[in-house]
Amino acid sequence: MIGVPVRTEVLMGTIVTIHVVGNDTDHAIERAFRWFREIESRCSRFDEHSELVQLSMRIGVPVRASPILFEAVRFSLLVAEETGGAFDPTVGLWMHAQGFNREYRTGGTVRSTVALDGDVSYRDVEVDANEGTITLHKPLLLDLGSVAKGLAVDAAARELQPLRDFAIDAGGDLYLGGCNPHGVPWAIGIRHPRTDGALIDSFSLSDKAVCTSGDYERLAPNGTVHILDPRSGTSAAGSASVTVVAPTALAADALATAAFVLGPAEGIDLLGRHGAEGLIVSTGLERFETPGLPR
User: Please, is 111 exposed, middle or buried when counting C-beta atoms within 10 Å of its C-beta (0-12, 13-18, 19+)?
Assistant: First the structure.
């Protein structure tokens, strides 16, 4: 989708590809990949040694967090507040219960020592910017899957910024810097949510992030879509795919998930309020899009 890959690794439960236009870029690409590894080690709910899982074991006390984990949680809570809980990072245990609890590298089932309690929400998480602490006021497991990849893409993009022309693709979370090898903006195809091998749209982008969430991406063994509506604990319905274009992958990633849960009409309103562009395709294949969507 983004041209000839320079380097590809399996990280954060997906395939990450980095393509840099030019020569002598190996060291920069390695530094960019280090951000993915570091953020995964901080924010994964599939690794019992991750900072996130260790946080879930300390209930009711302020825990000093790394800047990476703190920012991921802080931003998640802001989006949760803005969407009235349609986006909520406290769905980790619901995700486990629905079957999204397999570690991608080993295929083994991940078990949590935290008991599932349906009566938790983002309001049970407190961040203190002055102290750099996170407090979980109830037993819960945070799921940062809708922000961590975006955070990693942005960090990698900052690392590659001096090289100007590059593309990062982390399983549908992209940042396109400068131009492609032909000297023009990067061409991005958006997968058709119901027809394999077909595109439903395409964009030309430069110095922007684009993230797509679809109901076809990951399914639990029982057929459950991987994007849950935190307000009900069930699969989000109404949207087949959501593509968001924004200045950062962090914003595009979170807004794509939130808009997916809200549904097409409310989702487009959300994007408009935050200055993002996007395309939402309903389960009936009706298109909803913002007026400034790039072509």
Answer: exposed
